[in-house]
Sequence to fold (222 residues):
Amino acid sequence: GESVGLHLPTLSVQEGDNSIINCAYSNSASDYFIWYKQESGKGPQFIIDIRSNMDKRQGQRVTVLLNKTVKHLSLQIAATQPGDSAVYFCAERPGFQKLVFGTGTRLLVSP
Amino acid sequence: DVKVTQSSRYLVKRTGEKVFLECVQDMDHENMFWYRQDPGLGLRLIYFSYDVKMKEKGDIPEGYSVSREKKERFSLILESASTNQTSMYLCASSPHGQPQHFGDGTRLSIL
Fold:
């Protein structure tokens, strides 16, 4: 498969564990944040988003937490499955329609 | 489901050639984006467009141009390809203020 990042931080978990992927963002003016999942050979796929007036948002098996004080974003995946193995990107929106992406974290889930 | 289609999955061109990468979306989205993705650098925005015939420079526009003559189509042009433009190119589209949806990418090699 194609490599989307040779020097990525990697999180290794066991199937069934909860995973937490962290992201630091840079612009205190960013008003919107988003998490994407990218599997090998595919484009990034939207997972969940959150606006700056919230500090938590939940989806199906995923939760995003936003701490504006320390400019930190996290993605929590409950009961991680092998199909969750991918590279995860956070992104912030500092201005009109533009997103600025982090460099990504590789999640490896072992059975 | 949103469909963002990039015309080629793999492309090999020679230094100095003019290269066209095509992207089509079928959801009547106002915004379209071109990114490049390189190991360890994440996704970097080259150009985006928020309406037909409108374009805005992203973070790394040098050596590239774009064309948006129709709402559904956004073309990325490498005026004179160079080896440092070897990369994975990703196209995305979105309605205003909504998450971006990505195509599966074009892996471009410049020899």
Summary: The radius of gyration of chain B is 13 Å. Chain B touches chain A at residues 4, 31, 35, 37, 39-45, 48, 50, 58-59, 88, 90, 92, 94, 96-97, 99-105, 107 (CB under 8 Å). The longest strand of chain B covers residues 31-38. Residues 56 and 98 of chain B are 18 Å apart (CA to CA).
